[in-house]
Design goal:
By secondary structure, this protein is mainly beta. 10% of the residues lie in helices and 48% in strands. The chain has one domain: Immunoglobulin-like, CATH 2.60.40. It has one helix and eleven strands; from the N terminus they run H-E-E-E-E-E-E-E-E-E-E-E. A seven-stranded mixed beta barrel has the order 2-3-9-5-4-10-11.
C-alpha cells in the first residue's frame, strides 16, 4: 500500500462530511446557513424550522416569512418563557437581522412555523422553501429534516435539559 500524504487524507475526510456541515444559501448580503426542521408525526398540521442568518450589509434586514410546497404558510414565530409559562407568538413584523449581524433560529426561541402541512416531515428527507426578506428579497433554501424532538441539526434526540421534569 502506498503512503498517502496526511493533507490529502484530511481533504478526503473533509469532503465526505462537507456538504452536510456547510449547507448555505444566499441572496444579496443575506446568508442562510444550516436550515433544518424537525420531523412531524402523522396528522400534524404544523412543523418548525431552524437556521442561522448572517447579514453582511451595513443596513438591517428583516425575515418576514416565506413559502413552501409542503406547507400552506411559512411564518416567523418566537417562543419565550415568563414566570414558568411558555408562550409562542407570530411575529407579524418579522425578525430583524441587524447590520453586520447574525440571528439564529433555535428550538425554544425564534423559529419558522410551517402552517398547514400537506404531508408529514420525515427524518432524513430534504424539503424546499423560499424565505422572504424585506431588502434581500427571496432566498430559496433546503431544510434537512431531523428527528422528532431534535434540538440541533444533527441531533437525533432531544437535549437532556429539555427532558427535565418530563415523565417517561
Amino acid at each position: 500500500m502506498k503512503h498517502f500524504p496526511v493533507f490529502a487524507m484530511a481533504a478526503l475526510l473533509t469532503l465526505g462530511v462537507g456538504p452536510s456541515l456547510a449547507q448555505q444559501f444566499s441572496a444579496g448580503d443575506i446568508v442562510v446557513e444550516k436550515p433544518w426542521a424537525r420531523a412531524t408525526p402523522k396528522g400534524a398540521s404544523v412543523g418548525a424550522g431552524y437556521l442561522t442568518i448572517r447579514n453582511k450589509s451595513a443596513v438591517a434586514d428583516r425575515l418576514t416569512g416565506g413559502t413552501a410546497d409542503f406547507a400552506g404558510a411559512v411564518e416567523p414565530h418566537q417562543m419565550s418563557t415568563k414566570d414558568g409559562v411558555m408562550t409562542m407568538r407570530l411575529l407579524s413584523d418579522g425578525i430583524e437581522i441587524p447590520p453586520n449581524g447574525v440571528v439564529t433560529l433555535t428550538p425554544g426561541g425564534y423559529h419558522l412555523m410551517f402552517q398547514g402541512l400537506k404531508q408529514p416531515l420525515a427524518k432524513g428527507e430534504k424539503v424546499k422553501a423560499t424565505l422572504t426578506f424585506e431588502h434581500a428579497g427571496s432566498v430559496p433554501v433546503e431544510f434537512s429534516v431531523g428527528a422528532i424532538g431534535a434540538m440541533s441539526p444533527a441531533g437525533a434526540k432531544p437535549a437532556a435539559d429539555s427532558m427535565k421534569g418530563m415523565k417517561m
